Amino acid sequence: MKKISEKKRNKKEDSKRIKEEMSQIFIKEQKQNDVKKNLNSNLNDKYINYIEDNNKYGFVGLYNLGNTCYMNSSLQILKNIYPLTKYILLENKIEEGIIIKEYTNLLYKLISKNNISTEASEFKEALSRYDDYFFGYEQKDCIKCIISVLSALNMDLKRKEIKNYYEIINENDEEEIKFKQSYNKIIKNKNSIIFDLFFGFLKLLNKCRNCDYKKVVFQCFNYLDLSVFDIDKNKKINNLEDCIKYYEREIKSEFKCEKCGGEIIMKNIIYKLPKILIICFNRVYNNEHLNHLVKYPEKFNPIDYFSEKPKLLFPSNTKEENLYSLNGLIIHYGTAYSGHKISFCKNFFNDNWYEFNDNSIYSINYIKNEILNLKHAFLLVYEINQKELYNNLEEIKTKCDDNYTNINYKNLININKKIKRKKKYNNNNIINNKKNPDGDYLYGS
Ligand SMILES: [Zn+2]
Question: Is this structure's pTM higher than 0.85?
Answer without folding.
Answer: no
